[in-house]
Amino acid sequence: MKTWISTHNKRLRCACMSIIYLFLAGFVVLNMLAYKHAYDMLFFSDQGEPTLGPEKLSLVQKMSALFMGVNIPRPTASFSPTVINDSCKQVAIPNGEASYLGAWHCQPDQSDRLVILFHGYVMDKSSLIEEAKVFLQAEYSVLLVDFRGSWESSESYTTIGYREADDVASAVSYAEQYYRPDKMILYGRSMGATAIFRAIYSFDIKVDAIIVEAIFDNLLNTIKNRFTIMGVPAFPGAHLLVFWGGLLAGFDGFSHNPAHYAVAVNCPILFFHGEQDTRVKLFEARQVYDLVPSAKIFSSFPDTGHESHLAHSPEKWKNEVMNFLNSHL
């Protein structure tokens, strides 16, 4: 009997140890995958075809992306500034030691109102050409800015709006020094909106109005949404991705929250959001809106997702933007 009990206990201990080892091995593998995904999402590659957005991937492609990682080349384009208007010129904005931001400045005759436009994640300033044209037609000057790592700017990385807040501050300072507009408006889409919010929160930037599209409430939730689109449980993968991403980029990813930055917004602001947006859900953007203490408007677009609302609903976009600016400037 004692021999049987002893043998049974040994088998039980072996089974428990095997489970522990399997758990530890799985934890290590999960962290390795999270680290690779975080690195791939933050540091742009210099070759290969970009991985499609999660909404466009087939099941096989999703499995490949989950286990092999994604490829995100440095955002670039081949346009000339004159694609917007003959008055547009290329400029370089100093952005710290030995770094700079590529930008286009377009100045209509005698315009004393300036809109600075900031693009989204893995995009560049050419993604905002059509929006810039609308502002120009309304006799606003425009300054389209490439964030660090994109097209005509230096560096080859992104921080999903965290250090891009420094870029917003640099662009605003440059505009104040060289263009001296009577009125300054900031426009940002997705990551650009987040960078604007953090710049206002961190640097106490003063502008006359803000327009944001597709702003997320916090980094963890927007990463969770990507997992949902991929058909993968968000826990613990999203949390590990935010942890490693923050560690790689040098900040606490769990504290990168526009909903927290919102309390610092001190000027009129217009929110746009697509009701079909699966990357940033409508109620998440509304949570940010609710926390803004200044004059504000929230407008949703029933048929658009995480994309340009101007491209899908041009008349609605133009009318609401111009009504907002005419009312508050």
Describe the structure.
The chain has 329 residues and is of the alpha/beta class. The chain has two domains: 67 residues, no CATH class; 211 residues, 3-Layer(aba) Sandwich (Rossmann fold). The chain has eleven helices and eight strands. Strands 1-2-4-3-5-6-7-8 form an eight-stranded mixed sheet, sandwiched between helices. β3, α3 and β4 form a beta-alpha-beta unit. α1 packs across α7, α4 packs across α5 and α6 packs across α7. The chain starts with a helix and ends with a helix. The mean pLDDT is 93.
Q: Beta fraction of the residues?
A: 5-15%
Q: What percent of residues adopt helix (DSSP H or I)?
A: 40-55%
Mean pLDDT equals 93
Distance between the first and last residues' Cα: 90 Å
What sequence of helices (H) and strands (E) makes up the elements?
A: HHEEEHEHEHEHHHEHEHH
Count of DSSP-assigned helices: 11
Number of strands: 8
Which structural traits does this protein have?
329 residues; Rossmann fold; 11 helices; elongated; transmembrane
Give a quick precis of the structure.
The protein has 329 residues and is of the alpha/beta class.
Walk me through the topology.
Layout: H1 2-42, H2 59-68, E1 89-94, E2 100-106, E3 113-118, H3 129-137, E4 141-145, H4 164-178, E5 183-189, H5 191-203, E6 209-213, H6 219-230, H7 237-249, H8 258-261, E7 269-274, H9 282-291, E8 296-301, H10 309-312, H11 314-328
Parallel strand pairs: 3-4, 3-5, 5-6, 6-7, 7-8
Antiparallel strand pairs: 1-2, 2-4
Helix pairs in contact: 1-7, 4-5, 6-7
